[in-house]
Amino acid sequence: MTVPAYVVGICMGFIYAAFLVCIIGTLAKLGRYIRAPTHLRWELYPVPHEKAYFAVRDEIPMLRGSFAQFYHGGLAEELKEMLPEMLFLVRVFRYRRRIWFFSLAMHDGIYLILAWFVLLLIDAITRLAGIPVYAFSPNPWGAFIAWLTIITGIVGGFAIAVGTVGLFIFRLADRGMREYATFREYFNLAFIFTVVITALVAVCTYVWNYMCANGFTFKNLVDALFGNHQGVFYEAMMQMLALITFDPSKLAGLTFVTSPLMLAHQILFCLFLLYYPFSKMVHGPAKYVSYHLVNWDDKPHQEGPLHYNYWGIIKIKER
Amino acid sequence: MSMSSEEKKVSELPGTPPGAKRRRVLGIGLFTEDEYVKYKQTVPPTLKDVDLSLDGYSALGLPENVPPEKEKEWKEKFLSGLKKLLDPEKNWTFYRPFILTWEYCARCQTCAEACPIYLASGKKEIYRPTYRLEILQRIYRRYFTWYGKIPFLRKLMKADIELDARVIKQLAELSYRCTQCRRCALYCPLGLDQGLVDREIRKLFSQELGIHAKELHELGTEQQLRVGSSTGMTPKAFLKIVKFLEEMIREKTGLNIKIPVDEKGADYLLIHNAGEYLSWPENPAAFAILFELAGVSYTLSSEPVGYDAVNYGVWYNDIQLYKVAKKHFEIARKLEVKAILIGECGHAWKAILTAERVIPKEERVPFTDVLIVMDDIIRRKKLNLDPNRNNFPVTLHDPCNKARKGGIVEEPRRIIRAVVPEEQFREMEPHGYYNYCCGGGSGFAIMHPYNFDEWKMKYASYYKVKQILEAFKDVLHKDVPKYVCAPCSNCKGELRDMIAYYGLWEKYKITYGGLVELVVNAIADIPPFLELEFH
């Protein structure tokens, strides 16, 4: 079954719009927190970039220099704390191991899919440069990047599916989580799952049909995934090419990405992008604010209070 | 007795006890209506008119019966206060951290594993760290969202808490069931803070409805601003106590020390928690000895508020926080000191850190903590120390406000290593940034109303008692006196209560005290200073 070309065109326009809204919406959301009035200091130690509580002591002449030997910190210390937290959910692993596996699967799955988009971009650029990109490409870089795309995409997709189902079940099964979960939390998980499962079903169906037609061999399996001029990842790469060159004609002859199920997937994905900045899921970027601007703030030198109005009750002084 | 609260199915509420599907509860608390009526029959007459419907205890003494007009007023003010909490201008002081927790708490419940009160209660739902936020948000959704206005959507969207006097009272009480130790925030994968939510609820009640613990407000900040100290100590009484301290030092050590008061141009303005002068005078006396022998230039102040470092505003009210901090900075500028020095008082340290940004830059004075200065003195080897003077088992309790909330963890350990024999010092587990609160945090140490002490001992202090006993498990024998070192007045107050309540002195000879006492006791040039007793 094929879809009329104008539908494909509209879908492509929708992708641009959703992408833009998602980026702008997320930045606006972050901007809201970053531009919010400077709150009172409310750190939570240990603060990785300020281990010896250096800042306050240094302004006192009697203590100047006394604590320099204990000072070790900086951006590297922050990253040492933050990166494992982001990539492996260290706190969840330490303190709530029961949900860790599924939580990790979902979050790292999302990171992998983000990486997958970047890989598709690299695929597309490599192809623009005239290097053949597919699994059995004679060019080593073309082959390497193709395999990386296949693995990242498949592992990421399945990880998200497993993670969201697991977390959904945990929300229902764990009393503490069930009683506190709102409809929205289930909806978010179900939404992510639906976006991913439509793509996975489409991919599996395509691969199955291809192999049924051409025989169940490893080569056919790989060709169905990322062959030369065919395969799901090949078509995804071509779509990325069409998107970055603003050229819908690149989609001509593609059957997988223009199939009804994949169009449904793309529309769902766009809806997800539109929804994301306005949902709780934007907690990823918001985590930057909660750690760097609140818990690890630790800035004693500030230009006085910017606001003098307390609770709409007393005005202390106008600057 | 009026039961103003609309009955709700237990399963609709997060307070659901396991296997209690079809029971009905009263508001957001622990009791069913029948249970509450029965419970009230068992309480002493003084508690008959007090609302105990949250969990059978009362910290605020709110009345059982609330007239309808008062209920209406409370309800209106509560909702307007809730709106203000979410307003970046009106609540600029804590909007940013609060809104992050408000918007992004995913209820993964990781924080529950961190909360000593929740764990000590046998995981009672109402003490779960996220419970307060949950209740607040259900009220918010009920009154401020479109779906909260549509009855059949309320349950699905968890917008199902009707605000009435009972719920308001219970939520106010509930905000006094958290010590704001912020251990939960340390566990939170998103860096969010349920301790702050507790503080903001108290703030809403205090700033909008005028509901606060009288020990924190009327007898606390208000009295401090009016008389000079939350203990009620006047400047005259303070000067008398200083004379008494000089006498005490002379008797104990033979040293003739003149404690400097109101001396202009000193390096430090030393401000103790005024409770020290009344309950633990050996603590300020020890500082007088230490600073004299180490040659530290400092002064005390006899101006009202200048001799009391406490600032209870940090627990419940931004306006009071500002007023008290302003006085501290004002007095320091008047005395032309180079820095304010906070004594062994945890929350005073946190308060001055927090309040710094409400003081205009030109009115500020640098500040530091005595643990930092003591560490500096010891590392500069200004004293002749003999650790064998403290030859008894010692453990260190990290005050949350100094450690997790104030960044001071290594300093007291370096000090202890210099003044206590190595084999005698033992750590509690966990310690440092991950320590458990003594149970006296957020003002609990000074709050003894109604039957609240029982709640504190059973729930808030339970984990600390357990930790102390574990730290001393190899030396529990009665012949060996043991010392819990707590460089914080409120922690000491709570330790005093828990040692008495659990009989730790009679059974195990466990006592408590500050850190400077150990330091002064180790100074080889003067007679021993410390007496291991429990009063």
Descriptive notes:
The complex is a heterodimer of chains A (319) and B (535). Chain A has a domain of 216 residues: Transmembrane di-heme cytochromes, Chain C (Fumarate Reductase Cytochrome B subunit, Up-down Bundle), CATH 1.20.950. Helices cover 66% and strands 1% of the residues of chain A. Chain A contains 12 helices and 2 strands. Chain A has a two-stranded antiparallel sheet with strand order 1-2. With 535 residues, chain B is mainly alpha-helical. Chain B has 2 domains: 204 residues, no CATH class; 301 residues, no CATH class. Helices cover 44% and strands 6% of the residues of chain B. In chain B, helix 16 links the parallel strand 5 and strand 6. The chains are: A mainly alpha (319), B mainly alpha (535). At the A-B interface, helix 4, helix 7, helix 8, helix 12 and strand 1 of A face helix 3, helix 8, helix 9, helix 15 and helix 16 of B.
